[in-house]
Amino acid sequence: MDDFPPLSLHVPEPEVRPGGTPDFSNVPIPRAGSVPRPPVDVDPRDIRDLAFSIIRVLNREGEAVGPWSGLLCDEELLEGLRHMMTLRAFDARMLMAQRQGKTSFYMQHMGEEAVSCAFRKALEPGDMNFPTYRQAGLLIAGGYPMVDMMNQIFSNEADPLKGRQLPIMYSSKEHGFFSISGNLGTQFVQAVGWAMASAISNDTRIAAGWIGDGSTAESDFHAALVFASTYRAPVVLNIVNNQWAISTFQGIARGGSGTFAARGLGFGIPALRVDGNDYLAVYAVARWAVERARRNLGPTLIEYVTYRVGAHSTSDDPSAYRPKDESEAWPLGDPVIRLKNHLVRRGAWSEERHRQAEAEVMDSVIAAQKEAEKHGTLHSGGKPSVRDMFEGVYAEMPPHLRRQRHQAGV
Amino acid sequence: MPRMTMIEAIRSAIDIAMERDRRVVVFGEDVGYFGGVFRCTAGLQQKYGRTRCFDTPISELGIVGTAIGMAAYGLKPCVEVQFADYVYPAYDQIVSEAARIRYRSNGQFTCPIVIRMPSGGGIFGGQTHSQSPEALFTHVCGLKVVVPSNPRDAKGLLIAAIDDPDPVIFFEPKRLYNGPFDGHHERPVTPWSRHPLGEVDAGHFTVPLGKAEVRRKGDSVTVLAYGTMVYVAEAAAEETGIDAEIIDLRTLLPLDLDCIVESVRKTGRCVVVHEATLTSGFGAELAALVQEHCFYHLEAPVGRVTGWDTPYPHAQEWDYFPGPARVGEALVRAMEA
Ligand SMILES: Cc1ncc(C[n+]2csc(CCOP(=O)(O)OP(=O)(O)O)c2C)c(N)n1
Ligand SMILES: [Mg+2]
Fold it and tell me: Are A166 and B127 in contact (CB under 8 A)?
């Protein structure tokens, strides 16, 4: 025993903090097109290395290459570009609205637009997402009206959730978007349950669960994997690794696991890592996983490697914990610019048309905002009623709550 | 004496506890390098190093579970749950483990941990940044439950909680972090620097757990309050002109029953206020104790003013929050009975 030195605690720390030079040289980026595309009924044991690589389609020259390319036509890609641009413009306007006091809170997607926008296109009507607060692209690409999103953000008289929920905690059953919870991780295992229900009911619909890198530390994540594995639930389990969980770098949640995707391996769940800033790669991998689920082959775990360019939320200032220029050093680039460059290269788009489209998209967001503001904003104009506060706790209001509502004079 | 916000007072308490006792370790989500989303632990990692103040994975169960294990070893963890609304994943560890380890091991193992968490509403935080779940913990034997209402108490109570040999749930009413709040949301915030209780001794001192404090002397009706509601009650007393005696309970478990009984026997009337929902709230325990111990002195039914029995809404925040108007009405009702 004598030759054992004293123990010491290992506490991971990011390579660089404010004042340092951003450095992502420890993030190996495989060449676009270099990762094979297995058949959907592959034995999970044969693709363990996909949990440690990064599936990429768009190369530096803006070409789509390799076995995961070739799934989307010009029109579909142009539509995808427009969805991402819309989400970005939407974020910009809502951040401004928050600063103007029209809402209390906002969370943006800057840099992560491809993940939710492209994934949505791989789903069918009737499928159900169990999202976090950073997948509004599912709604935008799913055709949910921006005005309704804004009505929710402004907590106004037309808010579909009656002012009860924090801004951006949307819910739309009709658009396959489960009610967002503020409690991290809870939705991930619920997605598995929804998928199990679909299987129990001999339905054909599938579910998609969503979680952030940081939140994979919650027990709900691990419970989701074990249930999905045991019952081979028809579910796609999505981890959005944007490198940060508020001020905490991804190494704290990842720990000794090489990657987040690798968490799936012990459960026998096929696990893939994908370039989250590559619209084509996200779509291709999503389609693969969705097909597996729909063919009753069971769950797939996907890690989207991306970067949270903006602040965590309007309550956060990242300059306190990471270098200001870190996002510029991020090696996977900007998802909007990458898809634009690809479309230009294909001859389906031009810088000129892109600038025009930016203006059009912004106009449509502003028009939606004008419409929404007619119904009020948080502190002015039309509001949800105080009665709404008492409704919906139960299907039928019990006597004690009726008494309280009466006491409140509404 | 220096002036401190409640955040600075809490930071000072932890700093002093870490300085005095190497066994004190501090951790939680965003608590290390950044110093906490409310900055209560800012600078502590830089001062005491990464193994005594660190960031954790986002797992409240993990935070509390490892704290319990460290306490079993002999450390004194003071951990943060980012918002009280996020404590539920740790509930099993707190209720089935932390609270009972001393009892079930006959004292072989103990659990001297502090679990800090911001609680309460008033910041448009919606249902997941506004809750007051104290009653879920006062119902658990083996725990102590503390709710300070000002910087001086926050510091003294937190040092006492860290010193305490048993697990303490420490709620920090977040609406009080930067100044007292009486429910008049339309008025500008008064900073702690302009309030006498913002004067906080820079050194070591404790405020004992289990001792209430009379915040306002009065003869007509006793108001039992804690946290933000202390100031709401003060405003209600001023605005109604009713000579209320306002007791800041400070520790809910164990409760300072003597202080309560002495006051209610004097005034003959009692109103209980809290932000948390009504049904099975801590007010129910208080009302029961008051009628048990003061029944023959009571001249009016014990009143309760609380949050409504709904999840905490976002837009209707001020219709939900039990503000001075509602508390004032209860005072008038108590006087007219
Ligand atoms: C149960 C729970 N614990 C803590 C929080 C506070 N919180 C909100 S977001 C967040 C970080 C989440 O990071 P990540 O999962 O990586 O998602 P991202 O914000 O990067 O999209 C934390 C700690 C919470 N909402 N719920
Ligand atoms: Mg993240």
Answer: yes
Query: In B197-210, which positions are buried (b, 16+ CB within 10 angstroms) versus exposed (e)?
Result: bbebeeeeebbebb
Q: What is the DSSP letter of A156?
A: -
Q: Choose among A105, A164, A384: nearest Cβ to B311.
A: A164
**What does the CA dihedral A77, A78, A81, A85 come to, rounded to 10 degrees?**
-160
Q: Would you state the pLDDT for residue A1?
A: 61
Interface predicted TM-score (ipTM) over 0.90: yes
| Residues constituting chain B | 337
Q: Who's near A360: CB < 8 A, 6+ residues apart? A: none
Q: Say what the pTM is.
A: 0.98
Helix axes B6-20, B151-163, angle to 10 degrees: 30
Partners of A128 in the β-ladder: A207
Instruction: Write the residue in A163, A182, A400 that is nearest to B309 by C-beta.
Output: A400
A48-310+321-379, what's its fold?
Answer: Rossmann fold (3.40.50)
**pLDDT (tens digit, 9 = 90+) per residue, A315-353?**
999 999 999 999 999 999 999 999 999 999 999 999 999
The ligand 1 site (C-beta within 6 Å) comprises: A 134, 182-184, 212-215, 240, 242, 244-246, 308, 312; B 29, 58, 82, 86, 89
* Dihedral over Cα of B192, B198, B204, B209: its sign: negative
* Domain assignment of residue B207, yes or no: no
In this predicted model, what pLDDT tens digit does every residue of A20-74 receive, in sequence order? Answer: 999 998 889 999 999 999 999 999 999 999 999 999 999 999 999 999 999 999 9
Cα separation of the two ends of chain B: 45
Q: Find the CATH number of the domain harbouring B69.
A: 3.40.50.970
pLDDT for position B55:
98
Which of B48, B185, B319 to probe by mutation at the A interface, max A CB count within 10 Å?
Answer: B319
